[in-house]
Structure formats: C-alpha cells, structure tokens
Amino acid sequence: MAEKKKRRRTDPSDSDQQHLPFKNSLKSDEIILQTLKDLCSSSSSDGAAGTLTLSDLALASTCREVADLSLSSVQSAIETLILRLTHSILSGQGFSFSVPSRSSANQLYVPELDRIVLKDKSSVRPFANVSTVRKSAVTTRILQLIHQLCIKNIHVTKRDLFYTDVKLFQDQTQSDSVLDDVSCMLGCTRSSLNVIASEKGVVVGRLIFSDNGDMIDCTKMGMGGKAIPPNIDRVGDMQSDALFILLVEKDAAYIRLAEDRFYNRFPCIIVTAKGQPDVATRLFLRKMKTELKLPVLALVDSDPYGLKILSVYGCGSKNMSYDSANLTTPDIKWLGIRPSDLDKYNIPEQCRLPMTEQDIKTGKDLLEEDFVKKNPGWVEELNLMVKTKQKAEIQALSSFGFQYLSEVYLPLKLQQQDWL
Amino acid sequence: METGGSSESPIEPKKTKSKTARKPKENLLKQKSPAEFFAENKNIAGFDNPGKSLYTTVRELVENSLDSAESISELPEVEITIEEIGKSKFNSMIGLVDRERIDEELYDDFETAKAREKRLAKEARTQELHAKNAALGKKVKEPQASKGMKGRGEASFYRVTCKDNGRGMPHDDIPNMFGRVLSGTKYGLKQTRGKFGLGAKMALIWSKMSTGLPIEISSSMKGQSYISFCRLDIDIHRNIPHIHLHEKRDNKERWRGAEIQVVIEGNWTTYRSKILHYMRQMAVITPYAQFLFKFVSDTSDKNVTIRFARRTDIMPPVPIETKYHPSAVDLLLIKRLISETSRENLLQFLQHEFVNIGKSYAERLIGEMGPDFSPKMAVKSLTSQQIVRIHQLFRQAKFDDPSGDCLSPAGEYNLRLGIIKELHPDMVATYSGSAQVFEGHPFMVEAGVSIGGKDVKQGLNIFRFANRIPLLFEQGADVVTRTALKRINWNSYKINQAQDKIGVFVSIVSTKIPFKGTGKEYIGDDISEIASAVKSSIQQCCIQLKSKIVKKIQARVQQERKRNLSKYIPDATGAIYDVLREMAQLHASKKKRYEDEDADVLRKVSTHSITKQTLSEKLARHVEQVDYEMALEYATQSGVSEEPREAIYLQSLEDGKNFIDFHSPVFAFRLYQ
C-alpha cells in the first residue's frame, strides 16, 4: 500500500505524464481489482460444467489417446511387447514395431475439445529395412531402459537416458523422439515412463503447493521464483488467493513482473516456460487451472511465434498430441501484446521490427489453423499483423521506461478487460 | 631501347644540336610504330614479366601451330620444347666473355657485414628450433635449402622451340609474317584462336628486348621440295623485319610444317604450373591433337616430359569466314567494306556483304533510307552523310539473328573425350547449347561437368575456354567462375560443392569473344546473354549427372544394405535379451506369472537354451533372407544393363583412307567403302 501511495503522489508531476502515456486513463486499483474478481468468479463457474472427453464425442475409435499408467502396467506392457518380438525372431520372421504416426497428417483439431488429438494411423517399423533399422534398434533399446526404470522404480531425465547409450542414440533428439514413440506405442503418458525433462519453467506469486511433501510458498521464493518440478505426480495441495494466472512468454518480462511484485498489487500467479513450453510447465498450468479454477491471461510477443506458443499451451503441440488431454489448458485469454496494441499504445517505430519472409509465411500458415479460426478476435489480430508486416516483442514497451509494463500497460489492459 | 637514339638522329634537325639539346625534344612531334607501341606496352599482349612472357610465348606458338594444322584439316602434332640456358652458355651464345666480379660491393646482391650478421643469427635460431623439435620427436619439414641469392641481374634464359605439322608458310611471306607487328592472316570475321597478328611477333619483340637474339623459322609447305629457313629479328622503330638469313634448304624427308625457335628471358620456377596447366587444358579441348611437351635443363631432376596422346581423329570443322551482321558494324567498318567491295551498286552491296539481308529486304531497306538512295546507285559514290544514314538504319532495323553455322565449337564428343582423357573422372556429362547472339556476333556455349578423377582437387575446378583456348588468368571475375560458384545450386543435383571433386568445363566460341581487360584472359560477368547461356549449359550437364548419381547412390545402398542391417543386430538382440533375462528372474522367483508359450520361452532363457546368441543368429538369418529378396527385386527392376562403356581409340597404323566421315557435334559416323 505504501508503494501505491507513493505512486499516487508522483502522479500529478508533468514529467511522469510524458514518460508514461495513458497513465491518466488508469483508474484506481480497487476498480481494476473488482473487474478481476468478476472475471475470476465467472471463470470458476464455467469450470463446473465438466470437461468433454473423446469418448463423449464418439471419436474414441478413430483417435488415439494415452492415459497415466501405473509402473507395473507399463512394465507388463513392455514385457508383452518384448515377448511378441522374441517369438517373431525365433520363428525367423525378424521383428517389427507398429508405431502410431505423429506426423501432421495424422493430427486432428477437435473444436469441441479445443485441442489437437492424434488420429489412429500408424506405421510399421521393421528391423530388416535400411530406412527403419536404426529406429527399430533404438526403440528396442529404449524399451529395455524403461523396463529397468520400472523394475527399479526411479526417475531419470531425458538427458540421462540419452547418455546410457550415446553410441547408439548419436544425438538426443533421436532418443527423445523415440521416447515419444514409445509412450504412444504403450499408450501411456511420458511421465508414466518415469522419464522427465529438466526443469525449465518457473512460477512466482500467490500460490502455495507441496512438492514431494515440502510446502512451497511462491511469494517467498525471491525474485527468480520456484522452478516448476518436472514430475507433476509429486505436486499437490494447491492453495491460492490469486484472482488470475498470468502466463508470460519471456523470461525478461517475467523478471520485471517478479521484481516489481506485481502479484502483490493484483493478486495473481505468474508463470513462464522461457519460450516454447515444456511438458512440466504445461502439466503444471493445467493442474493450477483445474484445481484453482482461475482464469489464465497470456502475455506473449506480438509475432507469429508468440501466438504459436499460446496455441501450444491451449491446444497442444503436434508432437505430443497423443497426450493433449493432460497437457492442454483450455480457455487461455490473449491479453497482449496484440498487433492492435502497437498503434493503440503508440509504440514508437524504432521498437517495431519488420517481419521477415519466414515470419509472414508462418503468420499466414497460422491463419489456416483451426485453433486460430475458432476465435474471430485472434483472426482479426493476426490479419492485422500480416497486413502491417510489423512485429514487436514485449520488451518494446520498455521504450517508455522499464517499468511501463508493470505500472501502466498491464493495469490498463486489465481495467479495460482487453483480452481475447 | 635507348639504342634507338642513333637511328633517330638523322631526322633531327642539325641546327638545334648545339643550343637546345634537351628542351626541343618535348615539342617534337614523334611517331611511334606499332612495334614500338607494343614493346612499351607489352603487358597488353600478356608479356607482363619474364615468367608470364615465357607462358605467353609458349601459348602463342602452340595456338599458331594448331590453327595452322587445322586450316588444312590435318590432325595436329605439336612438339614444344623449353630449354633452360645457363648464364655462361647464354653468354657464349651471344659471344660475351664471362667476367668474374671484381668489385663485389658494386652488386645489388652483395651482402653487407650487417646483413650477414642478421642472416647468420636467423639461421642459428631456426637450427636451434629445429633441434628442439627433433628432440621432442616432432616431425618437421627439412629446412629449405637456402635459396641461392638471386639478384636482379641474374636472369634465366630459355630457348622455346615449337614444331608442328601444319600448313607451313610460303617462302617469301615468312619475313613479314614474323617481322611486322599487326600483320596477319586471321583478320577476317571468323572464329580463330589468334586475332590480331600479335602473338609470334610479340615473342620476337620480347626476345629482342631481353636477349637480343633473333628468331629462327623453318617451314615447308605441301609439295615443296625445299625447306625455307629464315633467321630474322624486327626493326622495332620501323616495324619491318630485319633479315639475317633467308634461304632454301634441302627437304629430303618431305617434311611439312613449321618449326619456330626463339630465345627469351623467362621464369620457369614460378610459371611451371601455369604452363603445365595450359598444356593439360589444351589437351582437354583439343583431344584430336597430339602434344609433346619437354622441359630440358642442366639439372636433370628438373626435366619434364609429358606426352598428351591423341584420343580421337575427329576434328571440328574448319570455321568458315562469315560476313558481318548489320547490327555489328560501325561507321568505319561500313566505309572499309565499301572501299573493299567488288560490288557495283548499293543493292548488291547490302545483299552480298552482310548476312541476313536478302534481296527483297535490301530493297525495303533502301526504300526506307530516303529519296536520295536508290538500289542502282554506285556504292562507291556514297557520301559520308549517306553512310551515316545507312549506319543509323542498321541500328534501328530488325534483322534475323546470325546463324551459328560459321562457328566451330569443340563439339560435345570431343569435349567429353578430352575430359575423360585428361581427368579420368568417375562421371562426366556434356552439353552443347545452340547458337545465340550478342551484339550481332553469334556465340555458342558448350559445357561439361565431371565428378571425381585424378589430379582434381575437392570442390569446384573450373576450366574455361574461349575459342578453344584455355583461359588461366583472372579467374575470379570470369562469367564461368561466377556462374558456377553463385548461380548453380549444386545440392539440388546431389553434388556436394565442398566435398566432391567437381570439374566444370565451359567452352565459348564466337566470331568475337567479348573479352574484358587488356589481356585476353577473361569474359566479363555483365553480359546477360552469355551468363544465362553458361548457366543453362552447366545445369543441363548437372541434370544428366543427377540421374547417374542417384543410380549410384541406389547401387551403394544395395551393396551396403546387409552391412547396415547387420550392424544393429547386437543392439536390438542385446536389449531384447536383457528384458527377457529380467523377466525370467521374475518368473523363476514367482513374483510374476506368465502363461503357456511365454513361460516356455522364459524357461528356456533361464536354462540358457535361448541366449543372446540364438536371437542374433535368427535375426541375422532373417536379414540375409531379406537382403537376398531385395537384391533380386533390384536386379529385376534395374535389369542387367550396365553403363555403356566408352570405346577406346586406337590409332590407325596405316593411313588407308577409303572411308567417308559424317560428323556431328555429338557423334561421328564412318562409312567404309
């Protein structure tokens, strides 16, 4: 509150007005808080409706979806598979895997679910074929390693897994992609394979949860916040008095908000995955959303990739579409920075960047995507971006001062309920 | 060149001699003979320095020999010998007595005491370093034998001899052919190697400048019972030959051809590779010629003898002299054509002195020229204004493009043979474009692309030819280099620009090659017609190569399939067996139950009747079977047809000429009678 008073006092000074345009249009924090409370209550009532599943839509037969499986069932799934291979080899047939295809042709956006799901096409991966021999050898090796993890009941990182047989895997992208194949094949989530990715996402703000039995208070985690734990099954007991979740694309903006303790002025939880979100962050966001029933507002760059990241949180990535049910967080609002904001907030020319050919192409491709089309507001914004051929990062707002983002831009956006 | 002063003095007025010996020289109007001009600007003709001069001399003589043999449709045989002449030998040749140095300090290469100290210190340092390296067991290059101190005065001299089996020269013309700059037989509008009548004369001028020794020519023409021998040099100031000896000698062996011998200053060490490259590339573009290249010196380990054997006896047709295209002439040229023509009236003149003007078209042109022109008017009576009008119309009117019939490209067949002969590539593709036009002159681009071969470095190796002459200098700015480097996407033809040994051969022929710069060393990149023709020709070659490369890759996949598959057997079976063993343990300890067949397998695993070895063997057998099936399938698909083999050329022992040749750029057909 002390800070707020100080801010009000400095309000009338001329110089401040020049530096922070639109500050005058800010109403008092109480009014903004009221709008947020409205948003929060409407969001929690929405959530009560319950979520649809594939079987509800009678798509279960044509679409593939994985579930969390217990360690022992993963183990027996692997054993059954291995026995099948053994029989096949002993009968002189060689062996082959039937791997669900994760190519973009095998993806389907289901508007009712608002996420991407995997169709049921799969490809055969025989050992005795030059083009697939490597992959099938890698697949058997990964199966064996996971079998060991199951027996010993331990977790390893993707990196660990890669290093157990560097000579065969050659580089980590190969073992990672086979790992996804394996979880598809066994019909379980990647977390059930006991393989985790290293920590990438961070969270700060009005959130208390337990991580492997320890209670964590995210308001007392310093400036950097708490790293999002890679295995979500050890996270629980979430409590919060926040009114919304703020999803931030970039680390820089996250640090700004964390340092300014934005969550104290407007009670919120701030999350970032520092770019493309990893599985852990997506699982964590989904857990927060479903358990706390808070609205999610996203702050991303005003470029095609910002929207793409937003879509990965919202509808899932194509790579992991087999597990989209667990990974996606429905109903994320696009708060900023939107192409229309560039003119609305008079962001100076020197802070806007011209879009490259590649950017424009990505933008046009996005316009064809179903998850964009379902939201007319997004289509409008994206059209504007492609038309003006300009993009801007969140940091462009720093041209009005480093704290413009937390002092003026976000409060004003919230006050105007300017989200899509 | 200061010796010229004596010959100039008679012209100089006597009276000025005493008073103004220096001043009037500036005001005096002097005239320069062409020979003087080229002596002073010898870099224009490629005589920049002794090394380059040696190279250019070889080049000019070889090219003259080829032109000469080709002009009588004889398969060229050229022998070129470079003989190094030591200083004392040279002195004895010119009748100079070797003198010992008396005043050592007078010389440029005299080593002062200070310099000597410095050198010794440096030598000691390198020796120390060397000893240290040797002690550490490192392999180091032997320190270079300290180069013999070579000062300015220490020039090396070479006798260059070029012998051919060409047409030879008429006895009486020989002095003028060598002793008069800018006189020649190749001035017409025709595709020739030489153009300006400069080459052999420049060699003579250079020999006169550097050694003062005359040139020696032996020549005999067909049916002549004698050999013309001529020893001459050139009077540079008057641009006339200065004959020492001109006589007819016996020709017992009925020899025909020419032999030219000239002694010049040169530099073999620095231009050795250039000269050898030149010979090699010449052999590529003229596979129907036989070259014998010899370098002889006192130290026998430096000697080089290379024979570039004949690979075919198909020669490109002799280029035909053609007439000018109306769009390629200027005012001066029109005036010259008018003064030289034997045609009476304007209509005939237009119709017969230019290509692509037919009778009716000539009439239309004359009608367009204006009322003071008529078809029947005498062509010699045209005024300057009228000639300007004709020129204007020539520039504006539309004419058909000149045909490429007058050109004599190397021919795809010959280019291909040349590449195979000299580079022994793994793969080669050639392409011959159709004639195109630049500024009224037809040109034709032929290209070859080779992959692999001996003595070829990794990456792009570019071989450029203009009118069937290799171009070696100024490669960077040349249209061919730029096109190959920047405008060809080698990757799309499955060619790795950095790793593969790529040979790019482009031969451009034209009645007028648009060379850039003073030396005829490169063709600029600014002529879009030529640039696009070069690009498409190279691309055509690449397209041909691509299918071959793809086939080769497929064949390699065939060969390596079994190896690639077998490589992963241990990984796969190892992983499977590990899981089986774990399961067998679980089964044995009754932690987990398995049914029927599975239990059977696991029991066998625990009793070691199924081991990793068993699995590997089974899998290996399967791989073998699959490989066999695939190989069969591949064989049925591709058939047994192999690449057509290149026919080898055998030189005929007897010259039985009872056949007729039908030539085409891509093949030759021989009909025996």
UniProtKB/TrEMBL annotation, chain A:
Q: Does the keyword Isomerase apply?
A: yes
Which residue ranges does the record annotate as region Disordered? 1-21
A cellular component annotation (GO) from this entry: nuclear chromosome
- Primary localization class, coarse: nucleus
Sorted alphabetically, the Gene Ontology BP terms of this entry are: DNA topological change; meiotic DNA double-strand break formation; meiotic DNA double-strand break processing; reciprocal meiotic recombination
Reaction catalysed by this chain? ATP-dependent breakage, passage and rejoining of double-stranded DNA
Type II DNA topoisomerase VI subunit A all-beta domain location, by residue?
199-235
Name its cellular compartments. Nucleus
Q: Name one GO molecular function term.
A: magnesium ion binding
Topoisomerase 6 subunit A/Spo11 TOPRIM domain mapped to chain residues: 244-414
Which cofactors must be present for this protein to function?
Mg(2+)
Residues where Mg(2+) binds: E249, D301
Q: Say if the entry is tagged with keyword Magnesium.
A: yes
Which Pfam families would you find in this protein's record?
Answer: TOP6A-Spo11_Toprim, Topo_VI_alpha, TP6A_N
Known EC number: 5.6.2.2
SUPFAM superfamilies in the cross-refs:
DNA topoisomerase IV, alpha subunit (SSF56726)
The UniProt function text for this chain reads: Component of the DNA topoisomerase VI involved in chromatin organization and progression of endoreduplication cycles. Relaxes both positive and negative superturns and exhibits a strong decatenase activity.
Instruction: Please state which protein family the record places this protein in.
Output: Belongs to the TOP6A family.
Under PANTHER family, the record lists: DNA TOPOISOMERASE 6 SUBUNIT A, MEIOTIC RECOMBINATION PROTEIN SPO11
Under HAMAP family, the record lists:
Top6A (MF_00132)
Assembly information from the UniProt record: Homodimer. Heterotetramer of two TOP6A and two TOP6B subunits.
The protein in question is named DNA topoisomerase 6 subunit A
Tell me which species this is from: Vitis rotundifolia
Q: What is the lineage of its organism?
A: Eukaryota, Viridiplantae, Streptophyta, Embryophyta, Tracheophyta
From TrEMBL, chain B:
Where in or outside the cell is it found? Answer: Nucleus
Oxidoreductase: present as a keyword of the record?
no
Spell out the residue ranges making up region: Disordered: 1-34
Q: Name one GO molecular function term.
A: identical protein binding
DNA topoisomerase VI subunit B transducer domain sequence ranges: 402-561
Supply the EC number(s): 5.6.2.2
Record Pfam families: HATPase_c_3 (PF13589), Topo-VIb_trans (PF09239)
Q: Kindly give the SUPFAM superfamilies that the UniProt entry links to this protein.
A: ATPase domain of HSP90 chaperone/DNA topoisomerase II/histidine kinase (SSF55874), Ribosomal protein S5 domain 2-like (SSF54211), S13-like H2TH domain (SSF46946)
Oligomeric and partner information: Homodimer. Heterotetramer of two TOP6A and two TOP6B subunits.
**Described function:** Component of the DNA topoisomerase VI involved in chromatin organization and progression of endoreduplication cycles. Relaxes both positive and negative superturns and exhibits a strong decatenase activity. The B subunit binds ATP.
Q: Which NCBIfam families match?
A: PRK04184.1
What is this protein called in UniProt?
DNA topoisomerase 6 subunit B
Gene source species:
Vitis rotundifolia (Muscadine grape)
Q: Which gene encodes it?
A: TOP6B
